[in-house]
């Protein structure tokens, strides 16, 4: 029997696949050795059962084996890629955060793609800002070394994903692959500020990261449904260090910032998101700036640059007000 069909029967019985089983199966998909029908059946079976941590880990290991790596010499390297799909309609907060974190002196390899379920993806807004998003692996590595910030465009650096792209589009629903982007940074980021809008996914992703041996990562979820650190409500945080996961709860006050309304963070499309990012990098005050400051503060605390979130907010504001963040974007554009 076809191995994917056998696996589909297993998951439809309610049984989770092991790490090695999933890794082998995803490997067959990425090598073009599985039919679209078999891929679709297995992905839907996993979705109906609910993807397990072992399945996430196995799939991530297979994707990492098939991606194009970005070499670097960074002892600390951050990614701010999240799962997306929160439906909050906000501007590209994690992308703006990546720029400000890099301006504060922490190297960042931002992994991302064009929009799927959101109004604007990280690749969409960076292209709108003038960044060459489809650079080769060598060019991305050179940019990281020169600027301390680079963009890892998923379709370019995960070429094997072409074998499952059509099936995913035909299915039209989130699958296992929607959770894998943040687990498969081509530059092998040591630290991650990873947002997700769903509580069930948050716990799974944190557990998977622990097994995948992250140095330290924060999996964040806004209680208002945002897949970012939010100032519109509280933020639930899972702090992952090796095999230990600690749950934290952050409020706007922890950052030394005022609460904001999600309505003030909206962007209708990549063009509007780009305008918001340019404005906040130029020093425009308001909810968008404060939200990026909070996310940057979380990242700076994560990598040990600061001892508390409020100090991180101060550093983030300095990176913007000094012009360093605006300059960092200009360097990335080249």
TrEMBL record:
Function of the molecule: Catalyzes the transfer of the phosphoribosyl group of 5-phosphorylribose-1-pyrophosphate (PRPP) to anthranilate to yield N-(5'-phosphoribosyl)-anthranilate (PRA).
Cofactor binding note of this UniProt entry: Binds 2 magnesium ions per monomer.
Ligand binding (Mg(2+) 2): 227-228
GO cellular component: cytosol
Cofactor: Mg(2+)
GO biological process: L-tryptophan biosynthetic process
Residues reported in the UniProt entry to bind 5-phospho-alpha-D-ribose 1-diphosphate: 82, 85-86, 90, 92-95, 110-118, 122
Keywords: Amino-acid biosynthesis, Aromatic amino acid biosynthesis, Glycosyltransferase, Magnesium, Metal-binding, Transferase, Tryptophan biosynthesis
Transferase is among the record's keywords: yes
Biological classification of the source: Bacteria, Pseudomonadati, Planctomycetota, Planctomycetia, Pirellulales
Pathway, per record: Amino-acid biosynthesis; L-tryptophan biosynthesis; L-tryptophan from chorismate: step 2/5
Any one GO molecular function term: magnesium ion binding
Residue ranges occupied by any Glycosyl transferase family 3 N-terminal domain in the UniProt entry: 10-67
Domain spans labelled Glycosyl transferase family: 77-325
The name this protein goes by in its record: Anthranilate phosphoribosyltransferase
Quaternary organization: Homodimer.
Pfam families recorded: Glycos_trans_3N, Glycos_transf_3
Catalyzed reactions: N-(5-phospho-beta-D-ribosyl)anthranilate + diphosphate = 5-phospho-alpha-D-ribose 1-diphosphate + anthranilate
The enzyme's E.C. designation: 2.4.2.18
Record-stated family: In the C-terminal section; belongs to the anthranilate phosphoribosyltransferase family.
Domain of life: Bacteria
Gene: trpD
Ligand binding (anthranilate 2): 168
Binding positions (Mg(2+) 1): 94, 228
């Amino acid at each position: 029997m076809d191995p994917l069909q056998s696996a589909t029967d297993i998951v439809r019985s309610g049984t989770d696949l092991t790490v090695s089983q999933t890794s082998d199966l995803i490997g067959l998909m990425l090598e073009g050795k599985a039919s679209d029908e078999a891929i679709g059946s297995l992905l839907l079976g996993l979705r109906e059962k609910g993807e397990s941590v072992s399945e996430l880990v196995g799939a991530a290991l297979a994707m990492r084996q098939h991606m194009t790596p970005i070499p670097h010499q960074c002892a600390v390297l951050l990614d701010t890629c999240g799962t997306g799909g929160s439906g909050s309609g906000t501007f590209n907060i994690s992308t703006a955060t990546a720029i400000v974190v890099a301006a504060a002196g922490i190297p960042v390899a931002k992994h991302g793609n064009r929009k799927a379920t959101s109004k604007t993806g990280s690749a969409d807004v960076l292209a709108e800002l003038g960044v060459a998003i489809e650079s080769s692996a060598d060019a991305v590595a050179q940019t990281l070394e020169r600027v301390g910030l680079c963009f890892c465009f998923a379709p370019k650096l995960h070429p094997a994903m072409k074998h499952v792209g059509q099936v995913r589009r035909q299915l039209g629903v989130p699958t296992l692959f929607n959770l894998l982007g943040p687990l498969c940074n081509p530059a092998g980021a040591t630290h991650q500020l990873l947002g997700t809008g769903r509580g069930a996914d948050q716990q799974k992703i944190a557990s998977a990261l622990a097994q995948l041996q992250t140095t330290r990562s924060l999996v964040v979820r806004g209680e208002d449904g945002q897949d970012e650190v939010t100032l519109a409500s509280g933020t639930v945080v899972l702090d992952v260090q090796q095999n230990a996961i600690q749950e934290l709860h952050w409020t706007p006050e922890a950052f030394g910032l005022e609460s904001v309304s999600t309505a003030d963070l909206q962007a209708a499309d990549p063009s509007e998101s780009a305008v918001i990012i340019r404005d906040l990098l130029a020093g425009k005050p308001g909810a968008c700036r404060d939200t990026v400051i909070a996310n940057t503060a979380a990242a700076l605390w994560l990598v040990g640059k600061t001892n508390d979130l409020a100090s991180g907010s101060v550093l983030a504001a300095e990176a913007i007000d000094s012009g360093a963040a605006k300059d960092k974007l200009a360097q990335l554009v080249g």
